[in-house]
Structure formats: C-alpha cells, structure tokens
Amino acid sequence: MNGFYEIAKSDPERLAVVEPRTTYGELLARVNQVSHGLRARGLGTGDVVAGVLRNGVEQVVMLMATGQIGLYFVPVNWHLTKAEVDYIVGDSGAKVVVTGPEDVDALAEGMPSTDPESRTAGAVMWYTSGTTGFPKGVQRPLPGAEPEAIVPLYTWFLGEVVDLKAGEGTHLVTSPMYHSAPCAHTQFALHLGHTLVIAPRFEPEPILELIDRHRVTNAMMVPTMFHRMLLLPEEVRKRYDLSSLQQVIHTAAACPVAVKKAIMDWWGPVLYEYYGSTESAIAFSVKPHDWLARPGTVGRPAPTFEARILDERGQELPRGEPGMIYVKSSLGTFEYRKDPAKTAASMRGEWYTPGDIGFLDEDGFLYLCDRRTDLIISGGVNIYPAEIEAALLEHPAVADVVVIGVPDEEWGHNVVALVQAHAEVTPQELLDHLEPRIARFKHPKVIEFRAELPRTPTGKLSRSKVREEYLAALG
C-alpha cells in the first residue's frame, strides 16, 4: 500500500490519531472535504495555502489535503507577531489562510467526502530566514504525479536512514508542526500506516507518560528535550515504561555527547540522528551503534547524497581538515521563492552549503566544528541575529547593537544583545519595544550595555569579535 490515501481506503478502521480519536477512513473523508473546499475557492495546481495552526488534527488535515491536489502548504509559526505572519502570507502569495479549527470547518462544510478529480502531489513550502533574517520560502518543484507515486521513494529513504518501516507503529509528535522535521515526520508516519499521538506541547514528564500509555514506537525530538528529561528525579523516570521505543530521531541542533550517551543509557540504543537543513533535507545520518562507536559524529551522507568539504577558494580539502560543507542529491533541488540571487549565493554549481564548518573522517563520517557563524540555535529553533538587531535599532535610544548566541546547558544557546545607547534606556524598555515587532522566543535573555562596540578596519561591526570578547569575559 502506497501511503496514507491507499491505507485509508483498504483499512479505514485503522487508528490514525489517538486524540481526538480519528480513524484513517474518517481522516481521509475530512481531507477530501477540505480538498474540495479549496478547489471550490478557485485554487489550482501550484497555488499556495498558509496555515497558522497549533498542533492538532486540523494541521494534519491541511497537510494531507493540499498534498493531494497540487498545492503548496506553508506552515506558519503561530507565535509570530501579526506583522511577521503578514510578511510570510504576503511573500508566499497565499490565496487561503487557515488560522484555526473554524477555518478548516468552513472549508469542509457541505463538501463531498469522495476523492477530488485529477489528484496530483502537492508540497510543503517552509519559510527559513537564512543569515539575513528575512524569511524566504524554500520551494521545490511539484512532482506532477499522483501522491501514491512518490510515497515509495520517501518510505524507502526513511527506512534506510532511520529504520522506520510500514505497518504497526505509533509516532509521538513532540514539537510544533510549523517546523520542517516534525511536520515531515507527521506525514511520513501516516504514509507508513502508523498512529499519531500529538502532544499539545513538550513537558518532560507528560511526554514520558504518553510514551508509556500509548506504547509509542517512534518520535522526533530535539536535544533540549533530552536535557530537560534528564533533569527529572530518578524516581520520576522509573515510573514509566519506555521499552516500546524503537526509534527516537533527533536533529535541529548539536547534541552534547554526554547528554546523548545518558539518554541511551536510559532508553537503550534508540537515538537516530540526522543533519541537514530546510533546504537540503536529510543530508547526513547516523544510527545508534555507529554513533556509539564514533561519539560526536552526525553521520555519513544519506542515500542519494554526496558531500564535499571545500576551502574558501572552492578547493576540496583532505579528510580530517575542516572547511565549508557542501552537499548535492539526485532527489532534486530547491529555490528560494522570488529570490534567485539568494538561491545562487547558497550554491556552487550543483552543490549547496548549509553554511556550516565541518570535516569528514577517514570513513566518511561528518563532524561539525561550528554551526553557521551568526545563526543562533536555541531549543532546536533557528534565531537570526540580524532580525533582532534591526528591531532594536528602531528604538530611538539605540545607537548600535550586536546580538550573539551564548552557550547554555539546557537550551544550546541563549540570545544576548549588547547595546550601544545614546540616551537613557533600560533593558525592560527595550523588551517592551520588541514585543509587537518580533516573536517572544526571539527576545534576548540578556541585554547589556556597552560604551563602544568593536568594528573592523572598514567600520563594520564585528559580531565575531564581540562574541569572542563576551565569551572570554565569561571564562
């Protein structure tokens, strides 16, 4: 059976979502109604739908509905401010915006539950900021085939990378589906015939309780979650039976070796890691036993991927020598929506760089030396300094500002803003100023004032120098 749509017809009573209880047949009926509803509003192949939705069945319905009628679906972070949401909606050209269950109900109302005509695969278009801080849609060509035709490739790839197989299984959604990896794994779980347990949010003990109660077999997490669960008292950890877990996949941020080892001591060798980006998808992957033999690696190139490490002149470097990571895949490429210059800047011919520094060992396993120099990854979420700096510079008391990421044991990095002011202003006043401009998860945890900020000989602010000096002062 090739994926969700076929499974729903051949086995309609199979459980698709635990809460609210929804079978595959019921989910497909709803998906078909919404597909007809979108078509009734004049949407055709290649058009865009945006969803500003919390985790729940509605997000799943929108994913699977757009996925069978040739539409692009843009999941939008509901924590963003109105201005930030408006920018993404405007830039994407979304013809329909869904913001809650009532909007999904309105699309489905009065529509048939039969298959729509001329079914063709759609795609998800995630927005990523890049180092500039201005979000751009990562747009891939539509396959031009029925959704069933492309499912086997993806299920084969997942099987190779993280040992996920079609059949019985229960997938726990722990992260917001507006992020690319949780969204993709939700879709994959349904195409594999698994049951979804959708957590409304991540809390350490409730997540353990869900794994125990629903006999969860696979989940996708980020390292911050591991850290928080390891902080639970031993007696709390022992309350829950986690023996059903077979694959816990993690990505999005570097995981400290000690944290990963401690989780596998607790859960067994079930942690699968992959490295990539919204643009490249899963470029490198490593299974539990390979990682235990080489702690710290993010794996070898995934199937269909090739990798090169290049110096600043574009020359390939020998094994063991760090440089810029470049990858390419026969699975296809992407472009930044309406920004050919940005697309070209990220490529060297057919090769794409996520902008990270790393090296390959003699066996071809990749080790990361540094994440993108300016990018801050906090709790598995990408935060771009340029966006925060631009918002702070709108305050009349701010003469200049540099935003950096400072290592934090729990979150990976915290956002710190170093401000050069030319008038009296307090940290709280600056946070109040940011409130309507950027989402709260991007707000600096620390705001400090400096009489002067270091600059390059050309007068440009030196973020790397600021970071070096700040970290040195912290010891």
Description:
The chain is α/β, with parallel strands linked by helices. It has two domains: 4-360, Rossmann fold; 378-474, GMP Synthetase, Chain A, domain 3 (2-Layer Sandwich), CATH 3.30.300.30. It has 16 helices and 27 strands. A seven-stranded mixed β-sheet has the order 10-9-11-12-13-14-15, sandwiched between helices. A hairpin with a 5-residue loop joins β21 (357-360) and β22 (366-370). The chain is globular. The chain starts with a helix and ends with a helix. It comes from Nonomuraea mangrovi.
Largest sheet at a glance? 7 strands, mixed
- Tally of individual domains: 2
Helical percentage: 25-40%
State which percent range the strand residues make up: 15-25%
Low-confidence stretches: none
